[in-house]
Amino acid sequence: MEHVFTDDNFKKEVLESPVPVLVDFWAEWCQPCRAMGPIIDALAEETDSKKMKIGKMNVDQNQTPGSYGIMSIPTFLVFKNGLVAEQLVGAMSRETMRDKIGRHVS
Amino acid sequence: MEQRQLIIVGSGPAGWTAAIYAARAGLQPLVFEGADAGGQLMTTTEVENFPGFPTGVQGPELMRILKEQAKRFDVEIVSAAVDSLKPVDGGFEIISQTQTYHTAAVILATGATARRIGLASEKALYGRGVSACATCDGFFFKNKNVIVVGGGDSALEEANFLTRFASKVTVVHRRDAFRASKIMQERAFANPKIDIVWNAVVIEILGVEAGHVTGVRLRDTVTQAETERPIDGVFAAIGHEPNVSLLRGWVDLDEKNYVKTKPGTTQTSVPGLFACGDLQDARYRQAVTAAGSGCMAAIDAGRYLDEIKK
């Protein structure tokens, strides 16, 4: 299942998550982000939530992206134990994304 | 294995126009949209020169409309990229997402991708102040200073767009005159937020250690003098590279890596393989010329399929 992260739930849902978390930073007006939307949805669907949590954060509605220095979207951050374990920028195919995040799933 | 008559690879103006014509000719095309569905127009804003839109149209909206038009007809769409394409007996074999397709003819419309400056520091700072998409990332440069590298229409369009957010946009161009159309130049010159640095190239982007762009080092192309300039963001619009990775080694390319076609047609060096759009057009590279050549490719492919059935 896909999560929606916000400034309010970020600490609890992402930083304190017992499993790695993939956060998709996106906005309505960003076409490559919209192209990635269904890919992230599908990955969230097929990924065991006990192994990795997957969700989105809207950069228009939240301040958190600023504190991670996000200056380009889509940006995907993988968090492990509250720290950024991987940063991916730009649109990519489902296979590439699956491959990149697969490395962080134990 | 799935057997098809015609597969179209790419979903920009060339790909969708080819699909519309091929479907209306009864060729039941299958279209692979690719990783960047819609192509380069998806990251542009206002398109004012596509005929039929007297008040202009947004790039992504134009692509939505073209796809909509193609869907009216017998077109099958796969929202995925092609992983491999090779000639086989009686046509071509395409692999996408572990599925194999066999087709008698292929129309390639994979377009071109914005060229990078090609600096190690650019790569290191990508997503940290270096951007390939002004419409995506302009938002992050509110009240900041950015540079746009380039001198063509896309450079000046990006510069104009970025002035909505940035406090100052500096266009850095390697020559002393722009290649852009007159109307785009006039807009840039009239925009008080746009500054121009002529005869300069970016030789390094500064800020790798800070983790975000802090400046650029420029070299004057006339005097060779180097200067540093503090800046928050770098956007490059310095031309395009044709997307030919599927074709290397077995399809003839020209010296700039564009696909060679028989003059006046879309026929490549390989029978049954047709190329349209920016992939084979280093000269015009317009949405409307891409669409025009997509139409040509569908007609060429239709004639080819008729020929081989005889």
Name the biggest interface. Answer: A-B, 24 and 29 residues
Helical coverage of chain A, percent range:
25-40%
Strand content of chain B: 25-35%
The total of helices of chain B stands at 7
Q: Write the CATH architecture name of the largest domain in chain B.
A: 3-Layer(bba) Sandwich
Coarse structural class of chain B: alpha/beta
CATH class of chain A: Alpha Beta
Using DSSP, what is the number of strands of chain A? 5
Distance, first to last CA of chain B: 25 Å
Main sheet characteristics of chain B? 7 strands, mixed
Strand order of the largest sheet of chain A: 1-3-2-4-5
Compute the average pLDDT of chain A.
91
Question: Keywords for this structure?
Answer:
heterodimer, A: 106 residues, Glutaredoxin, five-stranded mixed β-sheet, 4 helices, B: 310 residues, alpha/beta, FAD/NAD(P)-binding domain, 2 domains
Textual characterization of the structure:
- Chain A is an alpha/beta fold.
- Chain A has a single domain, classed as Glutaredoxin.
- In chain A, 33% of the residues lie in helices and 26% in strands.
- Chain A contains four helices and five strands.
- Chain A has a five-stranded mixed beta sheet with strand order 1-3-2-4-5.
- In chain A, helix 2 links the parallel strand 2 and strand 3.
- The longest helix of chain A has 16 residues.
- Chain A is globular and about 35 Å long.
- Chain B is an alpha/beta fold and 310 residues long.
- Chain B has two domains: 182 residues, FAD/NAD(P)-binding domain (3-Layer(bba) Sandwich); 121 residues, FAD/NAD(P)-binding domain (3-Layer(bba) Sandwich), CATH 3.50.50.
- Chain B has seven helices and 19 strands.
- In chain B, the strands form five sheets. In chain B, strands 1, 2, 5, 6, 7, 8 and 19 form a seven-stranded mixed beta sheet that branches. A five-stranded parallel beta sheet of chain B has the order 10-17-11-12-13. A three-stranded antiparallel beta sheet of chain B has the order 14-15-16.
- The radius of gyration of chain B is 21 Å and the shape is elongated.
- Chain B starts with a strand and ends with a helix.
- The model of chain B has no long low-confidence stretch (mean pLDDT 94).
